[in-house]
Write a structure and sequence with these properties.
This protein is an alpha/beta fold. It is 43% helix and 11% strand. It contains 15 helices and eight strands. Helix 2 packs antiparallel against helix 15, helix 5 runs parallel beside helix 6 and helix 7 packs parallel to helix 8.
């Protein structure tokens, strides 16, 4: 039977959020966390954007080293042959790519201003798919932007044209969060049957239904006979009201009534990494996790009502669908109130060696410590905040990769 896979787009759609951003090191850490969680694919960046080139190359190098395995790393570009050519010139080792173009009449009139017809859109997309395979892509996905406001006949035609050129997946984008669980179920089912390749559902949260729509879309695609790839972001961060939240989707897919028994995950998710992943993204984006966030919010396992408190103390299953330990939550965080030595952009080597020693990291000689410290200083300059323990350990373990992540070469 077809299965559900998770494609996380935090490093592409999440970083497009107004007023937010991530350093290249933070984006790399996100990929590592996603890999540890068992996410199938990370849409890890923009290969036509020059300041992403070294970051993308460094992460592909980590994949070759086996550090970022088995997760797939996929780039996102416009469905244009010129963008495909630029992609493989700047990031020649990229193997997985998504090509995106708007398909709705609203976008044809309002965005393209009549300069493109539906036939032009089909031509651009198919030429892009062909070019990607010719230049070395192993898998190509096609994205119908604003699919939820596109007539079904054209969506089917778009998908069939992509399949004929060899496209591996068809992404149905509910770009404005317009769908309901009922409408996206039907759309995904029709496309799965009529197009005949795996369906991705990419849902935004403008009407508060991104997670519900993602689950319903997955059910529709599977009922139509195809695998479904649900797009998520960590903590639901994304443009406007955000995207489908990774942890909430994972919980819904595995814990919701009668769902997980019938619709299976194609790759097991390690939910014990959920808490750590959500906390890092919150710190990196500088956006607090909402207290009522499913699974990882401060109140997700808090009980104040006398009846609820009494019931949960007798048996947690009275008022909790799942245990907090499943998500990697443990004892409350301990806040250091005494002396703290923090590694920052102006830190010295003595303090730095003290910090790393507390994490059981030693250096062969002072020169090595100084070299790693210099990389840490640059990482602090880029992020403009102290690094977390996992970032420090990453830099100490992979200094050459870290150097590449921290290098930006402006155009001449």
């Amino acid at each position: 039977m077809p299965a559900i896979y998770i494609v996380d787009v935090t490093n592409r759609d999440g970083v497009q959020t107004a007023k937010l951003g991530l350093s290249k090191l933070e984006k790399t850490m996100i990929n590592l966390y996603l890999n540890d969680m068992g996410v199938c694919q990370s849409e890890f960046g923009f290969p036509t954007t020059r300041h992403e080139s070294l970051y993308l190359q460094a992460n592909l190098e980590l994949a070759e080293m086996g550090v970022l395995q088995p997760i797939r790393l996929a780039g996102w570009i416009r469905a244009m042959a010129e963008d495909v050519q630029t992609t493989f010139r700047l990031v020649p080792k990229l193997k997985h790519i998504n090509l995106s173009i708007s398909t709705s009449q609203q976008m044809i009139v309002g965005k393209f201003q009549g300069r493109k017809s539906k036939q032009d859109i089909l031509k651009m997309m198919t030429e892009g798919v062909t070019a990607a395979f010719e230049l070395g892509a192993e898998s190509v996905g096609v994205n119908a932007e604003d699919a939820s406001r596109t007539d079904m006949d054209f969506l089917v035609k778009f998908g069939q044209a992509a399949r004929e050129r060899g496209a591996n997946r068809y992404r149905y984008c509910d770009t404005l969060g317009y769908d309901t669980p009922f409408t996206i179920y039907e759309s995904a089912k029709v496309l799965a049957k009529e197009v005949g390749i795996p369906i991705e559902v990419h849902c935004h949260n403008d009407l508060g239904m991104a997670v519900a729509n993602s689950i319903a879309g997955a059910r529709g695609a599977i009922d139509g006979g195809q695998d479904c790839y649900i797009n998520t972001t960590i903590n639901g961060v994304g443009e406007r009201a955000g995207n489908a939240d990774l942890v909430a989707v994972a919980l819904a897919a595995t814990k919701a009534k009668n769902f997980g028994e019938q619709y299976k995950l194609g790759m097991p998710l390690n939910l014990s990494k959920a808490w750590q992943t959500a906390r890092f993204a919150s710190y990196a984006f500088k956006v607090p996790i909402p207290m009522n966030q499913p699974g990882v919010g401060a109140n997700a396992f808090a009980h104040a009502s006398g009846i609820h408190a009494d019931g949960v103390l007798k048996d947690p299953e009275n008022y909790e669908l799942f245990d907090f330990t499943e998500l990697g939550r443990g004892d409350p965080e301990l806040v250091e109130t005494g002396r703290q030595i923090i590694s920052g952009e102006y830190s010295g080597v003595a303090g730095f060696r003290h910090i790393m020693g507390n994490m059981a990291v030693t250096f062969d000689d002072p020169a090595q410590a100084e070299q790693i410290l210099e990389l840490v200083r640059y990482a602090n300059v880029e992020a403009q905040k102290p690094l977390v323990e996992e970032e420090l350990l990453f830099i100490a373990k992979y200094p050459d990769i870290a150097k590449k992540l921290l290098t930006l070469t402006p155009l001449a």
